[in-house]
Structure formats: C-alpha cells, structure tokens
C-alpha cells in the first residue's frame, strides 16, 4: 500500500462482530492505524494518544479505526479498559494487515519474527491513502499530535 492506493472495500470485523468496509466511511476521511497487540505499553500509549485527541481529530474531519490481529473479545476488553471512543478491527487472519503492507518481518529481542508493523494511514473520502506513517516515524505517546500536524499540511 502506498500513497494514492485505494483500500480494499472490506476492512474486516470490529470488536462487536460488525463488518466494516469503505462504504461505512463513504464521504468521510479516516485514520486507520495498525498496531501489534492490545494492552502492551506502546500500543496502549498510541491508543490513548488518539483517544485524548479524538475530538480534535473529529473536528479536523477524521474518524479513527485501529486494526491488529487480536480477537474481537481482546479488542472489546481493550476498548472498555481504556474507554477508547473508536472501533478496532480484529484481523485474526492478517488479511487486511497484509493488504496494507503492515505485516512482515521484524526484530523482536534480537530474533526475526513475522508480525504487525506499526503503521498509520490517513484515508480520504474516496478510500484513497493520503499519507502513511511508518513504524520508524511513529512516536506512540504523541502520535495523535503527529497525525494532527500532518492533517494540517494536507
């Protein structure tokens, strides 16, 4: 996935078992952020940053959706625990993560493993990628500010 590419029509199933697709965001911009795992320190910091700035992101015209390979049940517990105001897609088969290019080889404690590559996509009203933040760019504790700054530049 690169800037200018269109997302797949079907994004996946959220924490409530509802299927989410581009049609759910028709005419609306949204932020799709891929993260490795619910309830881990970096992923919690990133989710809470987006939660704390959710109103500003909405004022800028963007909805927020997260995606990881965790289950619907894990996502619901994560949402409840941190009072997250947005949906999380349970991509248990990693099909969306792979389509996004957010699944691949990474180093974990000096060992090469396959996993989610923390990535954020800014999506326009047509479902087209406007901007991509790679894992090297993302600062989990201040990610919402990074996103807001990028939105201001678009």
Descriptive report:
This protein is an alpha/beta fold and 154 residues long. It has one domain: Glutaredoxin. It is 30% helix and 30% strand. The protein contains five helices and nine strands. It has helices at residues 41-52, 54-59, 72-82, 95-100, 143-153; strands at residues 10-13, 19-21, 29-34, 62-68, 87-90, 103-108, 111-116, 119-123, 129-133. The strands form three sheets. A five-stranded mixed beta sheet has the order 5-4-3-8-9. Strands 1-2 form a two-stranded antiparallel ribbon. A two-stranded antiparallel sheet has the order 6-7. Strand 6 and strand 7 form a beta hairpin. The protein is globular, with a radius of gyration of 14 Å.
Low-confidence stretches: none
- Tell me, rounded to a whole number, the average pLDDT: 95
Q: Pairing-aware structural class of the strands and helices?
A: alpha/beta
CATH architecture: 3-Layer(aba) Sandwich
H/E element order: EEEHHEHEHEEEEH
Quick overview:
The chain has 154 residues and is an alpha/beta fold. The chain is 30% helix and 30% strand.
Secondary-structure blueprint of this entry?
Layout: E1 10-13, E2 19-21, E3 29-34, H1 41-52, H2 54-59, E4 62-68, H3 72-82, E5 87-90, H4 95-100, E6 103-108, E7 111-116, E8 119-123, E9 129-133, H5 143-153
Parallel strand pairs: 3-4, 4-5
Antiparallel strand pairs: 1-2, 3-8, 6-7, 8-9
């Amino acid at each position: 996935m690169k800037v200018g590419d269109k997302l797949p029509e079907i994004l996946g199933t959220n924490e409530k078992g509802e299927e989410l697709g581009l049609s759910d965001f028709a005419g609306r911009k949204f932020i799709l952020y891929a993260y490795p795992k619910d309830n881990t320190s970096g992923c919690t910091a990133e989710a809470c940053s987006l939660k704390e700035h959710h109103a500003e992101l909405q004022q800028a015209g963007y909805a927020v959706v997260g995606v990881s390979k965790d289950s619907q049940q894990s996502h619901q517990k994560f949402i409840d625990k941190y009072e997250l105001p947005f949906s999380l897609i349970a991509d248990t088969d990693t099909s969306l993560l792979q389509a996004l290019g957010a699944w691949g080889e990474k180093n974990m404690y000096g060992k090469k493993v396959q996993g989610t590559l923390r990535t954020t996509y800014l999506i326009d009203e047509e479902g087209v990628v406007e901007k991509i933040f790679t894992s090297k760019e993302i600062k989990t504790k201040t990610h919402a500010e990074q996103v807001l700054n990028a939105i201001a530049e678009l």
